[in-house]
Design a protein that fits this description.
The complex is a heterodimer of chains A (about 180) and B (about 900). Chain A is mainly α and about 180 residues long. Helices cover about 55% and strands about 0% of the residues of chain A. Chain A has eleven helices and two strands. Chain A has a two-stranded antiparallel sheet. In chain A, helix 2 packs across helix 3 and helix 3 crosses helix 7. Chain B is an all-alpha fold and about 900 residues long. Helix content of chain B is about 70%, strand content about 0%. Chain B contains 31 helices and two strands. A two-stranded parallel sheet of chain B has the order 1-2. In chain B, helix 13 runs antiparallel to helix 14. The relative contact order of chain B is 0.07. Chains A and B meet through helix 2, helix 3, helix 5, helix 7 and helix 8 of A and helix 1, helix 3, helix 10, helix 11 and helix 12 of B.
Chain lengths: ~180, ~900
């Protein structure tokens, strides 16, 4: 991105960077290439000139085809939970947001929050049994029998539900996920 | 998200709900970073919501209108307050007011920002007031601030910078620090990017303004530096995403085969051991077998002591291998020690953390799906296994039968091998030319075939037992292990029989040779009449009568075994996997059923079986290496080639095992097997070195009674005499016994220590579990306990007197009341410092005689609890009554 000045004003860039003041330079590259990526998604929609904050949104269908998300069973949920309108249309800010949260450098707490949002399919701030079933079916490509799915979901709720309301609140979720050995990403 | 959308367009009610909802995850999330964030931060967090709400609300109304309205309201309040303040407050306070004015004025710069700034100002001041409670009366402060905001926007007086008081400076600094912290931690907040940017802008503006004012522009400079740096470095074409993702994918696909990785590690380990030993063997003596080395005490200029080094290397290999295996095991044990909470969240973890968000390759994704499904199935089976109880007698019976069957198999295979070895000894007596290839290699072929046939047989038998798959796998491995070991040992015993026979044979030959030599000398003296300087008989070396050299024979047996093992393995892969895959793949087009999904299908890669094979191969090397040093070289080649060969086979014509059950969580299961094999293969070798006399005419130890005589010889001849003394003392039983005792004691002590650690570990685990349960219970009971608390509160006298709805109404008059006599209505801030004033306020105390203090001191939003908002503590009229028990009369 040699022609970065034409895409963003310095001010805009600074704003994005200082957000990650520890890793600002890194973010800068991320960010420049991110705009490239964003532009690639919908060349006809996204202008190359971002100096005056155009109000552009790229629809979900285009975003889920990114190689990073293409194979992800939760791709729709990811995009939806990062989009401001909840429909999966991402503005550039949302887009950067998504990548910054999914990046390695994002702290675990933040990831936990967004993971919770992603798994919360019906957006009621609780992960209830239907959410779990959906999660499981996406994870296994629906190869488990309904009884097995039921068993797994019940066990999962039983394990993680601390307040006994048969659904996982964020506190439950965080408590559980923060101890997971695999939750480092 | 839905709520957001609603909110953006929505009504006031919605906005409130949203603000609440948004705020909700925060405290929990923040709890984790409590160490990093100080109290101020969390305060700020709490205040974030109302601020946001207000900002949003304003947006909804027409902008100007709201502005006007608010200004008006504020001005009114400010006016009255200002008057009051100016009249009686101290110099310090007026100064502060000016400072605040200045702040407000400065901020009026941009129209757009102003609104936010005002809000922030309010927030900041509120906070500051809370903190500054020690030297100021809270209520007044707050009101002043409110007033100042409005007046600040209207009146510009920048000229009073210098007159800032110390307290003001400190407060400002604090605020600036807070903002900075906010900037740093902003990225950790689960907000929308838009909100973050806005927040960032505000904070930056604030910091910039006031850092300058406070005379420390370090942040600014840093900031400029950052910008510069990024400009310098921006020439690079690509970001990190593309570069990062792809290798990660590969790594992850590798992780899917984490068991394979295990396999690879062992492979690698073995190759290293072998390479080392092989190099030693190869560089110094490049010949395959024991018998080719001669017994010259030292060779060449460097006086290389071949027999000694042969023995030392032979024994040293064992020592080195033992060390490597044990060290690896220790490392694994350390790594595997973190499974503290295993089992607590099995299903939840699998549900939420099993997908790898970095997977971008369809094939990897498929594998991941499959492995996730398997792991779920595994857990489900685990779970169901716990619940299942069936006809236990039938199952026991079946298990007994299965074990009997397997014992029969093992016994049969052992007998078969013994029989074959015996037969081969008979064959060996015959002329080698008469024997067919089959007869010559019977032993090896039978052993390899047994290794090929028995494991599947065991698997079939184990179907009877209906063990849990993981346990079944362990049984299976143990049985295969027993089979191999049994075979190997039968083979060894048969070999020892042969060796003994050879030793007898050798004695005869030795006598014959000695006889022949004696005759030769006799004849020589007879013919030449010379009794001294008799030249040695000039028989060509090929014609010398030789002993059977049992060591070489043993070595040859092992080499044959290894080679046939290689052949069988390779052929199995070629036929059993490759050919099968080819047939299944291409015949599928013209077959009556689906070959890929149906009967033959593709071969499964049997990880545990392969690992076991490797382990036994290694055992054979350990056993044979002493008698056939070249075996090590053969095996290095074999392992290297088979690594690539099997890799190709796995990738091209195998499918993953249908049910992947790891034998154990840590890799120590296989390492333990390896150790056992090492020990078992070490025994016969050491036994033969220590007890069997070496052949008299071949090998480095020829002519000695025992192999270890070389060491004695070296000690006697090559080392200075005092060393010999030392060794003789060291070998004294009087010294050895204490040493052994010491070792036993050490083992005992270490064992006790490790037991103690284990106990404390268990204790800690139990405590954690208890804590978790407790937490669960507490959360479960929260509602009920809350209810109790509520009931208690309801029982309080003033609550019963004044119903909650009237609380807010009564608050206002109270405030006004407090204003006129210049006394704060809020005891919360009156704790220290100027709280003296409170004492005078008698009227308020009378108005609300009994008010329990239920909260700690601090800034307080106008709350629903009327008692607190009402006034200072009753009766005593002491401003610092809180902390004591609430009065209950």
């Amino acid at each position: 991105m040699g022609n970065k000045q034409t895409i963003f004003t310095d001010e805009q860039l600074d704003a994005y960077q200082v957000r990650d003041s520890l890793v600002c330079i890194f973010t800068f590259f991320l960010h420049c290439s991110l705009h490239g990526r964003y532009h690639e998604l919908a060349p006809h929609l996204v202008p190359m000139d971002y100096t005056n904050d155009p109000d552009v949104k790229v629809p979900l269908a285009l975003i889920v085809n990114m190689p990073e998300l293409k194979e992800n069973p939760f791709r729709n949920r990811i995009v939806e939970s990062f989009s401001e309108d909840g429909q999966g249309n991402l503005s550039f800010n949302d887009f950067v947001d998504m990548f910054s949260v999914l990046s390695e450098m994002a702290p675990r707490e933040l990831k936990a929050i967004y993971a919770f949002k992603i798994y919360d399919f019906n957006v009621d701030n609780y992960i209830c049994k239907e959410d779990l079933e959906k999660t499981l079916n996406r994870l296994t490509k629906e190869e488990l029998t309904p009884e097995e799915v039921n068993l797994v979901c019940e066990k999962a709720i039983e394990e993680a539900d601390l307040d006994g309301d048969n659904k996982l609140s964020f506190a439950d979720f965080e408590n559980m996920i923060s101890r997971a050995p695999d939750f480092l990403r | 998200m839905e709520i957001d959308a609603e909110y953006d367009s929505g009504s006031d009610v919605d906005s409130k709900r949203r603000a609440k909802g948004k705020n909700k995850p925060k405290p929990a999330a923040r709890g984790k970073k409590a160490k990093a964030d100080s109290v101020e931060e969390s305060e700020e967090e709490e205040e974030e919501a109302p601020r946001k709400r207000k900002g949003r609300k304003k947006k909804e109304e027409s902008e100007e209108e709201s502005e006007e309205e608010q200004k008006g309201r504020r001005k009114k309040a400010a006016g009255s307050k200002k008057r009051a303040v100016k009249k009686d407050d101290s110099e310090e306070e007026s100064e502060e007011e000016k400072g605040n004015k200045r702040k407000g004025g400065k901020k009026g710069a941009s129209r757009k920002e102003k609104e936010e700034e005002n809000n922030k100002e309010k927030k900041g001041n509120g906070k500051a007031a809370g903190k500054g409670g020690k030297d100021k009366q809270d209520d007044k402060d707050k009101k002043k601030n409110k007033g100042k905001n409005s007046s600040g926007s209207s009146s510009d007086d920048n000229s009073e910078d210098e007159s800032m008081s110390e307290g003001e400076m400190a407060r400002l600094k604090e605020e600036v620090e807070e903002k900075k912290k906010l900037i740093v931690t902003l990225r950790n907040k689960p907000w929308r990017m838009k909100r973050r940017l806005k927040c960032l802008k505000e904070a930056q503006a604030f910091v910039e303004k006031f850092e300058g004012a406070l005379g420390k522009g370090k942040g600014r400079r840093l900031y400029a530096f950052k910008v510069m740096m990024t400009k310098v470095l921006m020439g690079m074409p690509y970001g990190s995403i593309a570069r990062k993702t792809v290798p990660r994918d590969e790594q992850d696909s590798a992780m899917d085969f984490s068991v394979l990785f295990e396999f690879g590690v062992i492979c690698y380990c073995l190759i290293w051991i072998k390479l080392l030993t092989f190099l030693q063997g190869y560089c110094k003596y490049s010949i395959m077998f024991y018998g080719y080395y001669n017994n010259q005490r030292s060779i060449g200029l460097l006086q290389f002591r071949l027999p000694l080094s042969y023995l030392l290397v032979g024994v040293g290999i064992f020592g080195y291998s033992l060390m490597v295996v044990i060290r690896t095991m220790a490392r694994n044990a350390n790594e595997g020690g973190d499974g503290a909470e295993e089992g607590a969240f099995t299903f939840s973890w699998k549900l939420f953390t099993s997908w790898d968000y970095l997977i971008g390759n369809p094939e990897t994704a498929d594998n991941k799906f499959a492995s996730t499904t398997t792991s779920f199935k595994e857990s489900i089976v685990d779970e169901q296994e716990n619940l299942k109880d069936e006809n236990i007698h039938l199952r026991r019976f079946l298990r007994v039968i299965a074990n009997i069957l397997i014992l029969c198999c093992l016994g049969g295979s052992g007998y078969l091998i013994y029989y074959v070895v015996k037969r081969s000894q008979e064959f060996a007596k015959k002329d080698r030319n008469e024997l067919t290839w089959l007869q010559k290699n019977e032993v090896e072929i039978v052993m390899s075939l047994l290794g090929l046939v028995c494991p599947p047989l065991f698997e079939v038998i184990s179907e009877l037992e209906e063990y849990h798959p993981r346990i079944a796998l362990k049984w299976q491995l143990a049985r295969i292990f027993a089979l191999f070991l049994g075979n190997l040992y039968t083979f060894l015993f048969a070999l020892f029989d042969e060796v003994n026979a050879k030793l007898d044979n050798e004695k005869e030959i030795k006598n014959e040779t000695i006889w022949a030599l004696k005759e030769y000398y006799d004849n020589y003296t007879l013919h030449h009449n010379v009794t001294e300087n008799i030249p040695p008989p000039n028989i060509s070396p090929a014609d010398v009568i030789r002993g059977p050299c049992w060591e070489t024979e043993v070595g040859i047996e092992f080499v044959k075994l290894t080679v046939s093992d290689i052949q069988v393995t390779y052929l199995t892969i070629l036929i059993g996997d490759f050919l099968r895959a080819v047939i299944v793949r291409f015949l599928n087009y013209c077959w009556c059923w689906d070959l890929e999904a149906g009967f033959p299908s593709y071969g499964e890669f049997d990880i545990s079986g392969n690992v076991l094979g490797l382990i036994f191969n290694q055992g054979m090397i350990w056993m044979g290496a002493f008698y056939a040093p070249g075996l090590v070289g053969i095996n290095v080649l074999r392992l290297l080639s088979s690594m690539y060969y099997q890799c190709w086979a796995v990738m091209s014509c195998n499918v993953p095992h249908e049910r992947v059950f790891k034998a154990s969580r840590s890799n120590n299961f296989y390492m333990g097997l390896l150790l056992l094999v090492l020990f078992l293969s070490l025994m016969p070798v050491i036994y033969s070195i220590m007890t069997l006399p070496p052949s008299f005419d071949c090998g480095p130890f020829s002519g000695k009674d025992q192999m270890y005589d070389v060491i004695m010889e070296t000690i006697e001849k090559d080392l200075p005499p005092f060393m010999a003394d030392i060794f003789s003392y060291a070998s004294n039983p009087g010294l050895i016994m204490p040493a052994v005792l010491l070792m036993v004691l050490a083992i005992y002590y270490l064992n006790a220590v490790s037991k103690a650690y284990q106990n404390s570990n268990m204790d800690l685990k139990r405590k954690m579990q208890m804590q978790r349960d407790e937490e669960k219970n507490r959360r479960n009971n929260k509602d009920s306990t809350n209810q109790v608390m509520k009931d208690l509160e309801d029982l309080l006298p003033n609550k019963s007197l004044i119903p909650p709805p009237s609380a807010e109404e009564t608050e206002k008059p109270a405030d006004q009341l407090s204003k006129s006599p210049k006394v704060t209505g809020k005891p919360g801030a009156a704790a220290t410092g100027k709280g003296v004033n409170v004492k005078k306020d008698v009227s308020l105390a009378a108005a609300n005689p009994r008010a329990p203090v239920t909260r700690p001191p601090g800034p307080r939003p106008p709350g629903p609890l009327p008692g607190i908002a009402r006034g200072p503590l009753p009766g005593q009229g002491m401003g610092r009554g809180r902390g004591g028990p609430p009065p209950r009369r």
